[in-house]
Amino acid sequence: MRINVTVNGIAYERDVAENRTLLRFLREDLGLTGTKEGCGAGECGACTVFFNGKTVNSCMVLAVEANEGTIETIEGESSGGMLSTLQEAFDRHHAVQCGFCTAGMIMSARELIHHTPHPTVDQIQEGLEGNFCRCTGYEQIIEAVLDVTGGYTAKEELLHV
Amino acid sequence: MIHRFSYTAPTELTDLLALLETAGPGAKLLAGGTDLLVNIRNGLVKPNTVVDVKRIPEAHAIMSDNTKGLRIGWAVTINDILKNTDIASSYQLLQTCAHDLASYQVRNRATVVGNIVNASPCSDMAPALLCLDASIEIASSKAYRTVPVRQFFTGVKRTVLNPDEMVIGITIPIQSKGAKGKYRKLKRIQGHDLGIIGVAVAQVGDGMRIGVSSAAPTPVATGNLPLDISVSDAIAVVDALISPISDVRCTKEYRRFMVSEFTRRLLVEVRA
Amino acid sequence: MYENNDPSTLAYVGKSVLRKDTGEKLTGTATYVSDMVLPGMLYAQVKKSPHARARIVKVDTSKAKALAGVRAVLTGDDLDYRIGLYIVDKNILAKGEVRHYGEAVAAVAATSLEIARKAVDLINVEYEVMQPVLNHMDALKADAVLVHPDLGSYEFIEAAFTPVPKTNIANWTKLRKGDVEAGFNEAAYVVEREYDNPSVQHVPMETHVAIVRWGARDKVTIWSSAQSPFTVRNLFCHTFALPLGNVRVVVPAVGGGFGGKAGIHLEPLVACLSKQAGGLPVKLQASREEEFSLLPCRSALTYRIKTGVAQDGKIIAQKMEMFWDAGAYADYAVNVTRASGYSASGPYEIPNAWVDAYTVYTNKPYGTAYRGFGHVEFHWGIERHMELVARTIGMDPLEFRRRNALHPGSITLTGEKITSHTGDVVACMEAVARSIGYGKLTAAEKKRELASGRKIGKGIALLQKAPAMPSNTATAAVIKMNSDGSVTVNIGLTEIGQGSTTALAQIVAERLGFDIANVHVMVDKDTESDPYDWQTVASKGLIMSGNACILACEDLLRKGYAVASHVLKACVEDLAHDGENVYVRHDTENCIPWKSIAIGYAYPDGKGIGGPLIGVGSYIAQGLSNLDKQTGQGKPALDWTFGAHGIICEVDPVTGEYVVRKVASAFDVGKVVNPALLRGQIVGGMIQGLGTATCEGYIYDDAGHLLNPSFTDNKIPTARDLPMEIETIVVENSQIDGPYGARGVAEHPMISVAPALGNAIQSAVDADLAHMPIRFEDVWRAMHDNHPIDNWITKTPAGSCRSDPAARIHTPDSAISP
Ligand code: FES
Ligand code: FES
User: Fold this and answer.
1) Which residues contact C467 (CB under 8 A, 6 or more apart)?
2) Cα torsion for C542, C543, C549, C552, to the nearest 10°?
3) Averaged pLDDT of chain B
4) pLDDT at C573 exceeding the cut of 90
5) φ/ψ of residue C510, rounded to 5
6) What integer pLDDT is reported at residue B254 of this predicted model?
């Protein structure tokens, strides 16, 4: 089926098989490999993107569903070589280790900040619960989100005894 | 996904129902896809046509009305429920249950109707809908009928729906407006998980109702219990309703115990 | 390598320098093997066994071969290569018999993933299902089915391992120190109990993936999401009898490893498909489900511990029997057994010790390395057992640990002497005890208990681990100066998220005295261009590669000064530099910029001198030795890292539900190189440890089918599963041979989280837990079980009447009698 879809502000017209997921369409047909697959079954959030303004697990969306729709991915997060404030905060707080969850995590964090501009820690945990991270233990990710939303109070990284 | 199918997205309900009539059981309806697409991926379902039901505007409507109660369109998502202020003020139990369903991005896709139509024993929305006496609006190209949610489920993953029928809405009667209730779900982790068991207790009008998920082949609920029913009587009623099994998530003994214990606690909390 | 630097003089070491690899990872431009597509690339899929044990009667691939787009189809009969890290026991595709659920039986490569999947569906395998042996304790019985009847004929590494032919024992590690029986006779109390845990999956977010191109003249290129490119190359060449120069392994960004990507996994199969397909590159990425059973897991363990203790609480003797469930193949499990064997007591001094550690074959997915390399599993047993022994003698568990913990002068199980430079486990314990207010509840906590109806408990567990590695493990670093005066560092250690790239850049910048912006550590690895590194495992990266980097810096400076001394007409001894210029100490105007000599200096008359400046540093572990196979004595440990966790939890005394309120973790890291990176390792590891402690683990049915190979029923912690409070504490007793005094700590945060939680739950509601994960139902059951403590005590001073322990403690009818 032929679809028209706008991804990160660029309009694409493509033929796509009906059974192709949005995730594979983005990664394989458009070459936007920043979005990752961690399970392919809607459980891990690595494939999170914005679909018509809302976050979805793109492995559980058909590409054809996105016809006439808009998609935003990690590739659209920075502009002109400049990281977004959210990306900068992730960097400052060491919220990235292997980086495989990062794209989805940034998408979910952005959605959270959009509907809850000053989230509590609980709200951040809930906003990100659909994004697995096996490396960081989440704490530094939560701090990064607190930092961009004004809720962060600096503390020592470690207690030395 | 390896299985091939055709895709269509009607923009009128009449077209959709007509299509259902001709397509036969090979057609599968796609709303949030959180169940259907997983099943296709895992080879459990092999539709020849996937019918996207979301392109019809009324599918997304939530209507709240002082005589008819609440009506939820067939493609209303869980997050739509959570963001709706009428529901927040008048049908809070729906939100309580919705809130415990999966993760944020899944709730952006998953629909209330889908959660019922799947007829999974561990549906999170079913306990609320059962307690609130919801009725399920079912349409085909030839007929329209409503079925009380209590009669909607016929077994594990089975409902009263015929192949040419679809659920086009869920109505919650005005009598259930303002019901106060609580839902408690036993999970393996604090984060998103399927319910090991789930219990909803609601005071609706002059009765007390208790809905339970994951403890029988279908979600189940008590009838209208006296408001002042004793805790032990309530537990006895619930205990007789359920028939839990042991599986990888937990044993039937623990399920039975936890249903009783949650019932006990929620009754106290709802009355407080 | 340890230099007693005043921290105030350090520019980078000890600072939270930002990661070097985030520019790409934050923007989605870092390339992982999963993202790669090569021209002409084919996609592979695997046909897997639905049975735990079955004879392969017939494999019919004709329909698959006939499918358009299929370029290669392989079955076990087509291949005659065996692989194995320590015991060469695994066929690339099952031959004749399948030995576990999910084992690869056939494979295809096709022009698209869809065609490959379809082709696999078209392969028809006829099995004759056989009775599997599933429980590792059953596998020890005299009449048990043999998973590998030919074990006796397999090639294996004799210096370290002892398979027992005609049994299911893939390895038997022994350790004997002192006289354990005399110790028990002398002891006032003897306490014996068994602890266990199931297999667990690593769950790196990027599943295993490899692309292989088997080119003309047997030139093979492998792109792999692997932790250890040189190991992949070496084992690959061993299997296919190729010279090392024929095979190139490239590792770009890796989406997590945790031990599961050490060793060699998909690469040989993909290579055979590429060869069959005429040399086109072939890609195989495991699905999440395949990650659980086609690829290996962490071994299950049954750990029996018998401890003799004196009236004053000093441990006199301890007998430790470990039964490791290898699954169908030995892979790393035999080495997990060995490394756990010599560390089996945890950080305690045991004057008389006896260890028998067995790796046992069963018909289940096989075990491999996983963060902690056995220590997560056996510390569950040892630290629950220490709690039990303390309670037996009526001593506070903290005091009991204090009395028995290793301290300077203690002799470890293998005969190594602990010094003040080894690290201080008691300091870690005291720090976490203070942090959680161990031993009592505060007024606020008591109020909370009353208000919530939940019980608050506090528990502590200690831990130790040294790298499990060959005694001659080595690595190297190459530092190349660029013509702008910056340097590029090549090391073979991979960046799998742990942050080595950044920590090593700090060490290089520190030692060179360069601005860290001018230090580039290459992230992508390539065995053709990077210097050798044994493996990215074992928490040895910082210490070994750090030392190699320091040596390479010194080499680079020496070579640079040699050129500068000519140019500046000064002796090398009189030179110094400020990161930009090399100058003469007492004539600072007389200087030359690094960039002018970086690739060779040109005199004003055009004559050249020097050439590209390249520093090389090689480092090999020093002072280690093989262990005696009969007594286990020797020196296996490069460095011991000690630590402790303290946990406060809140338990519902009726339902067994609990929440973790606080985790305090302390480690003696020698020297903190990067506080923010270190906290990331500690918190990340601790949460992974909580996953193991609370919810993760393989569940099988009676026929050996894995019932939970996905996130639906194998949960891992989410952002909501964090404890409400986390405290990360460091102790810094310098490691004498560590870079700037640092020692490794990548695995340690995961160890002993489970027993700290078990101990906390016990102190809250008296639920006595011997099995992890600790599910709510387990707590509920344990609260109702109420086994009297006497069940585990076999000897008391009074000799008073106790229930018969033999009736309680399960003794397998084993084929082996030590
Ligand atoms: S890959 Fe889509 S949720 Fe895991
Ligand atoms: S950084 Fe590795 S999974 Fe999150």
Assistant:
1) C473, C537, C538, C539, C540, C637, C638, C639, C744
2) -170
3) 96
4) yes
5) -65, -50
6) 97
Which stretches does DSSP call E strand in C362-471?
A: 455-465
The C-alpha of B35 sits at a distance from chain A's nearest C-alpha, in angstroms, of: 9
Nearest to C209 by CA among C274, C261, C263: C261
**In the CATH scheme, what architecture does the domain B179-271 have?**
2-Layer Sandwich (3.30)
Among residues C768, C791, C772, the alpha carbon closest in space to that of C781 is found at: C768
What is the end-to-end Cα distance of chain B in Å, rounded?
A: 51
pLDDT beyond 60 at C802 = no
- In this prediction, residues C282-298 reach a mean pLDDT of 98
Give domain limits for chain B: 6-52, 57-175, 179-271
Chain C, window 32-61: residues with a beta carbon less than 8 angstroms from a chain A beta carbon: 32, 34-35, 37
From the options 3.40.630.30, 3.40.1080.10, 1.20.1730.10, 3.30.43.10, give the CATH code of B6-52.
3.30.43.10
Q: Which amino acid would we find at residue A41?
A: A
pTM above 0.90, yes or no: yes
* CA dihedral for C263, C265, C266, C270, sign (positive or negative): positive
pLDDT for C807 beyond 80: no
Min Cα separation A141/chain B (Å): 16
Q: How many CA atoms lie within 13 A of C814 on its CB side?
A: 16
Alpha helices in chain A (DSSP H): 22-24, 85-92, 102-115, 121-128, 139-148
- In this prediction, residues C395-419 reach a mean pLDDT of 97
State how far the Cα of C558 lies from the Cα of C572, in Å rounded to an integer: 8
Residue pLDDT, tens place only, A101-138: 999 999 999 999 999 999 999 999 999 999 999 999 99
Report which secondary-structure segment, H or E, holds C105: strand C104-110
When pLDDT is averaged across residues C148-152 and rounded to a whole number, the result is: 97
Please work out, in degrees rounded to the nearest 5, the angle formed at the alpha carbon of residue B120 by the alpha carbons of B116 and B121. Answer: 115
A64: CATH: 3.10.20.30
Q: Nearest-CA neighbor of A64 among A51, A76, A74?
A: A51
* Continuous segment of H or E residues that includes residue C183: helix C180-186
Task: Answer for the pair C502, C674: CB distance below 8 angstroms, yes or no.
Answer: yes
Of B2, B191, B194, the CB nearest to C114: B2
Give residue-wise pLDDT tens across range C304-328.
Answer: 999 999 999 999 999 999 999 999 9
Residue with tokens 């002398």: C186
The pick from A90, A91, A102, A105 for probing ligand 2's pocket by mutation, whose C-beta has the most ligand atoms within 8 angstroms, reads A102
Q: Is A161 inside a domain boundary?
A: no
Q: What is the pLDDT of residue B144?
A: 97
3-state DSSP call for residue A114? Answer: helix
Give the Cα separation of C298 and C248 in Å (integer): 29
Q: In whole angstroms, what is the distance from residue C478 CA to residue C483 CA?
A: 16
Mutation to test the B interface, candidates A18, A23, A60, A110, most B Cβ within 10 Å: A60
d(CA B11, CA A119): 38
DSSP code of residue A27: I
Query: Where residue A92 sits, what CATH number does that domain have?
Result: 1.10.150.120
Task: Locate C304 and state its tokens.
Answer: 């029996």
- One-letter amino acid for residue B163 of the chain: P
Does residue A91 surpass a pLDDT of 60?
yes
Q: Which two tokens stand for residue C260?
A: 């599961």
**Record: fold of B57-175:** 3.30.465
Residue C205 Cα to ligand 1 middle (Å): 10
Tokens of B154: 């016929």
Six-digit token string for C484: 């702008």
In chain A the first and final C-alpha atoms are separated, in Å, by: 64
Residue A137 Cβ inside 6 Å of ligand 2? The answer reads: no
Looking at residue C8, its pLDDT comes to 77
Closest CA to C546 of C513, C577, C507: C507
